[in-house]
Protein 1
Amino acid sequence: MERFERHFDELKWLYIELYENDSMFAELCDNLYRFYEERRDGLKALDREREKDPSWYKSNELLGMMLYIDNFAGNMKGVEEKLDYIEDVQPFYMRMIENEWKRGGIGICGNEILFASPEDGQILFLNRDTLERREYSVPAMKGRGIQGISQCVDEEELWLLPMKGLTITRWNPVTGEVREYSSVPEHFKVVQYPFEYESEEHPFGGMIFCKEDGRMLTIIQPNWGNMFLELDTETGETKEWELPMGSANRGKNEYFRTGSMGGFVLTMEQMGKPDCRIWYAPERKLYNINAFTKEYKEVEIEFDYNDLLEHEPGFYEESEWMQYCLNENVFNSLKNLLDNEITGNPFDRERQLRAFAKVNVNTEGTCGQNVYAFAKGKIL
């Protein structure tokens, strides 16, 4: 608290100058205190050492960077061109594969955070306290990539979920031993979202392992797959694990659609236990569920209306795909748009033109013709 009090005035001045929001600053202070109380002793000791050297962050032992890609260089290709003076930087967790940026898997193993490559079998182990790193390569995952990493409580094996294909790999990082599981029911399908064609990519989203009274239950949750699976780890056979609340892998109507069925939401205390929570995406509902008995009960979710209202963005630059837009919701309906009663940022013509210029082929009125010629050249 003494250190916080010493820097409080400076912190508040910097924050309010930027955001002009006292309530959010108070929330920031509360979170800073809570995070510090939950911080491990090893990291607190590191904090005290760094306090003795106020310039510690200027050393070259660790480098971090955050930038808004669109403002800095337009796109990731532009970032590579602007930062060409940085050498020996190897893509790992994020990689450009077939002209598309893809993200690998993340997991936790003991006191280490794991980052996996979406392209091959490389896995980076990063110690959370010391930041020491070690790298492994799992040859069995070459050509598949790793989308997810799961671990059963009290076991040292890691379960590697493929970015591409249906083979799940059980890998022991100590012995190097590998076992593969590739059995799925005949009616298991992987459908690319939102274009609805069958695909080999993103079949699985994660795994949970439940133990109770000598029984073991292993469940594989889908990503683009159309069902949850129960895996017999001894025989390698799988069968559908039916959700008691429904089995749709898309929304009920065209107004709200989802790319997956959802998945389990586990705290560290729930790892390995049958009583957990599951998010059922098609209905946008959260449930408490027992994985063995499938008894479930909806968890009521409440939001503070004024808090949602305060943080409604209105018109803004959302993403690479939605350069400038207004998302339709309870605060901004189609009627609100037509009546010019927008909550949040109002429409800004100049921002719209700048966003349009980023994605427009040209301003000569021949965009459709050029796109058609490009697509025709790729297909024929």
Note: Residues 3 and 51 are 9 Å apart (CA to CA).
Protein 2
Amino acid sequence: MAATAARRIDIVVPYAPRPQFVAFHNRKERFALGVAHRRAGKTVACINDLIHGALTCPKRQPRFAYVAPLQKQAKSVAWDYLKHYALAVPVTTAHESELHVDFPNGGQVRLHGADNPDALRGIYLDGVVLDEYAQMRAVVWPEVIRPALADRLGWAAFIGSPMGRNAFCELYETAKSDPSWFVFRLKASETGLIPAAELEAARAVMSVDQYAQEFECSFDAAVVGAYYGSLMQQAEAARNASDSPRRPTWLVFEAAPHRQSAAGSSANISCPMTPRRANSPRARRASRR
């Protein structure tokens, strides 16, 4: 009896990547990190990256995951996108209560929340996206997600907008100098994805720090309750402007004691700051304390 020839089935997913994410989809590095402005399309790009992974992974029962800071956030942000693109694949099923889709090749993409990291222990992953990593607990990546990738050599992609100089910022700075990472940064002033008039309208109702963080991907913008954000941006700009050694700033600032609330967030939003010359008698007395 003649062997039956394998039939090729071409699957078309209704997704056309934005030019800004083409390099992300074509990356060869195992790990990736993207800092992107609001409404850049990062979640849609990552969901389709997971779908492609689940459909093309050669391993048995491929498992891919999208992780948001909260379970309900994963559902509200990504579930409709996942169903829209995944269900274009024939014989694919969506499980509403469990927030996962199953593909005919045995592959699966599931949504998770980082608010219950212990629920992620014990699973294996061939690929994972951690969306808005800046809002996740520090233990989620090193203690929970990273071990889940080990035996199948899975990949990971971190994506989000800055929220000050936290773990996401530290990972970004480290990844930039590591050739095993694919790193990109999308500022609204450079991508052209949002009309200039809309950006100006947003700028009119946002503070300088809010706009710098949400649309210009600045890690130095001060979050609510934080101090010195604009000063950090000025210092960074000064460092980038010249490689020559610089003398310490001549301004010294006084601030009321920085209290912390029980939850760990700032309890006092503002404080008086008075500039004075660093070589003044009062400054010298402060430096001796």
Note: The chain has three domains: 28-186, 194-244, 249-254+269-289.
Protein 3
Amino acid sequence: MSRSQTETRAGPSYASQATQRANKMAIWSLILSIVWLGGIGSLAGIMLGFSARRRIAGTGQRGAGLATAGIVVGLITLLFAIAYWAFIARHIGGGGGAGNGHGGAVTAAASAIIGPRWSAHHPAGNLYRRGTPAWTATAP
């Protein structure tokens, strides 16, 4: 090979890759997936990750790995968020127990919407559900 042939040969261009930045949506996808915010950040991270992958495929930007990591971490933290909220709903939420197996959540919700007359916590509430109107029941 002569010297003129090696000078004209086109090699890989690393200059354009060094100046090209990672996609910001991919970066935010990973950040929001890590900071899960009770599951909302996880969902936002997953959606941004898919959107970033689509945009990166079209524009050729860097950050496909970040977007994939945002999706994976978002799915994992979403599972943790679902387990967390299920634990909270089962063990902490619902107030007093009505003995119906729901931990009082149904009774508390009915009491909040309809009023205390329908609640098991009200003295006449159970009588009304058995067919005796609460206004005719006498207090012991």
Note: The mean pLDDT is 74.
